[in-house]
Amino acid sequence: MNIEIITTPNDTLKESGFGSLNACNSVLNAIKALHYSVRLNVCTTEENLAEIVKRRPDLVILAVKYIPVKEADDIWLSDYFSQHKINYTGSKREVLRFDSNKVLAKTHLINKGIKTANYFIAAPGQFKKESDLPVVFPLFLKPLDAANGNGIDDLSFVTHFKDYESKVASLYAAFDQPTLVEEYLDGREFTVAIIRTANKRLSVSAVEVIPPTSAHGLRILGAQTKKDDSEKLIKIVDHEVKNKVATLAIAAFNALGVRDYGRVDIKTNNHGECFFMEVNLVPGMTKGSSYFPEACEIAHKFTYEKVIELLISGGIARAATTTPPHTQRGYNKSLATAI
Question: What is the pTM of this model?
Answer without folding.
Answer: 0.91
